[in-house]
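Handout, page 2. Input:
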Amino acid sequence: MRKYIYPTAMIILLLTLIFSIERCQFYNQNANANFKALTDSITYFTNRLGTQSASIKTLEIEKSLLNQNLLAKDKQLATLTQEFSEVKSIIRYSQTTKYDTITITYKDTISCIFSRFGKVKTKWYRFNYTTNNKGITIDSLTINNQATAITGFKRSWFLGKQTLTTTVTNTNPNITITSLTSAQVIVPNPWYKRWYVWLGAGVIGGMLTR
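Output:
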């Protein structure tokens, strides 16, 4: 059996080297990608549907860094993630809905001639208005909102089955989500990363070295 010790040890060392190189490359690529993501700014482009899309590079961080860099600095976000047993992704964005001019003309003109104008400003919306005997005009209508989308695993109870779930939360109470679709692409691990490969290599190496 001793004649197998050397080739077996070489195989184990080769697998370990491949794994180490791959992990080193992963961490280097991940660090470079995260640096670019942190310094990236929002870009806007016209998509294939003919509408506008916003794009930004995505951070790839481990759970400890997620807690340190994001959750520790944002109590609302930390509270939302407590609903999950494991967080897979977080998306947070701010949006502003604007209407330049909305004009409503009365079908029957009011006989009394008058004109009034003013401004309405609240936490969630603001606009200017002008009204007279012919109708009302609203301009510079602006609606603000911040949305948070979290994908992760939830449990019905402590030892219950985990279910992959996506939740979207709006800060503006006047906005209601009427439709929601979520999908996650499953990327299989390379064969040399799988636990049973390393277990088998260890068992075989142990048997041959006896």
